[in-house]
Each structure stands twice: as structure tokens, then as C-alpha cells.
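Hey, can you fold this one?
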Amino acid sequence: MRAAVIVEPGRIAIEERPIPQPGPGEVLVRSAAVGICGTDVELFEGRHPPEYCRYPLVPGHEWAGTVVALGPGVQHVAVGDHVAVEGFVACGTCRNCRRGLTDLCERGYDELGFTRPGGAAEYVVVPARQLHRLPPEAALDEAPLLEPSAVVVHSFLRAHPEPGDLVVVIGDGTIGLLAVQVARLYSPRAIVLVGRHPERLATGRELGATETINARDGDPVMAFQQRTGERGADFVFEGAGRADAVEQAFAFARRGGTVALTGAAGAGAQLTIPSDLFVFKHLTVVGTFGASTVAWEQAVALFSAGLLRLRPLISHRFPLADYATALDTLRTRQPGVIKVLVEHDGVRA
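Sure. Predicted structure:
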């Protein structure tokens, strides 16, 4: 089989490797498609925290495929099933796992695409408990976006927005556009999407944003107040992954509001905010790391029910042989880029 490998920071190779065989409790999945996100760029550039990756690595934590072989003892999936694959490999028995925080397993960090081979290989062995079955008619070229969808759902589950809330979403990339769709399901009073790309903001309006603000046109907080007549938002979702966007999120929030921080700004990014801000604004601030199994289950349920529109977010497609070009397309922010997808030969849905 072929696999894209980040041999070391700055070097990618397409390697021939033997097809792995599933052991007890494991499943062999043929990967159909894999999404590339900003974290993959960090892995390539060597900016990802070393405790959360292991070189050489096969990337691909956003992926889906078809079950082709079962190891001993596997019962809840069958050969031929379409599946999305949860990334965090959790023990299921530690205190965090028992509380539903499978993304924070106390056994230690272990994730497909970082410490284990991910979906940029044509075949991947995974623990059976990582699989989420999809309807037979599910489009496997859309299903890789279930990973970022689960991340968004995880934030909403932790932050508990309420019906009638005024919601601000910061970031018009994949995460932000998914957040608009999830926010819509909570019956908000309005959803304001803040971004920097007119074409993505237009997509956001199509997906449910009631108002969009281009941050390049001036102070977005002032624009928000002028357009809405509100002093602040009830719920602010930050998905841009920049330090200035985090500070902006606090500025958007009303006194007594809630801020959910989901984007990762990268190593070395620092905030410059007054320490009393949180007290005087009486803020609830929620951070999320990846997605729990519960969030995955809800994201898959929304997708299966047709409540998530994922295809409009796929802007670029490449074959596995062009993985380096696909990665560079996202790194250099080519015009119109949202989600870059790498598809394996002969398995596009």
C-alpha cells in the first residue's frame, strides 16, 4: 500500500508499506479520503508540540473509509461498513474517560495521525472502538469533515448556549463554518460570522449566518455593536486559531456571556489582556481539546440525519500522490481554499 509520510519537519515522502493486519479488538479500514487542516501544516513545519506527535508519522486525523477485515473479538462492525474514525485512543477506564472526557485520557496522549498512522495511508489498523458507523449511502468524501464537526460539537456541549442567544462565530474557515451550522440547531436569535475572506463569509450566509463582518474592513467589535445595537454577544465561539482572535472573543462577549475557545494559535502565541477582565465581565470561558466520544456520536448523528452540510466546505481535491501539493495549497492559503481533501485511488464515493 501507499502512504504519505512526514519523515521529519519539512520533508514528505510517498512510501510503499505492507498492508497491516488487525489484531484482537482491531479493524482494518481502507481509507477513502482524508482532510488536511492547520494542525497537519504545523506537523510539516515542526511547530506542533513535540509531546503530541512522533516522527516519522503518517498524518490524517480527519478521515473515513470502509471496513475490509476484522480482528478476533470484533462484533459491532462488519466488513463493508462505511465508517468515520475517532482519533483519540482512550483507555475507557480512567477517571477522565469515565466522566466522558475521552479526549483527556489519563493513560496518556495517543492519537491517529500523530502518534499512530492516520488516514493518509491507504489501509489503517485501528481499535474497533474508534469506529463510528455511517449509513450505507453516506458520502465518504464528506465524512472526513466529521472530525472537525465533532470538535465543534464538543465545544457546544461544554458551553451550553441557550435558545434565543445572540451568537458570534470568529473565524470563517472550516471550524467557523461548521460552528455556524451547529449554532443554528440551538435556535439562536442571530448568528454573526466574523472573518477575513469575502467568499467564505458568503458561504457562511448560505449555511445559516444572519450577519457577516469582514474584519479587514475595520474594528469588527465596533461594527457588530453598530449593526446589532447590542453591547455584546451571549455566546462567542472562537475558531480562528489566532491570539488576536482570542482577545477579540473576550471583547465581543457581553457581561455575563460565555466564550468557547477552540482554535489553537500554535506554540509561542501569547495574550495581552487585563487579568481582571474575566472578573469584571463575569465571563464563562470554556476551552476544548479535540473531541470526546460523545461529541463524535452526536456529530455522526447530525450528519446521518442530513443536518450538516459538509460538501460546500470542500474546496480542493488531490490524489494521494500529490499530498505535498495538497498540503502546500493550505499552507499558502490559495484563493478559495477552505477544506483540502486527499482522495485514495478508486474509493471516492
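The mean pLDDT is 95. Let me know if you want another pass with a different chain boundary.
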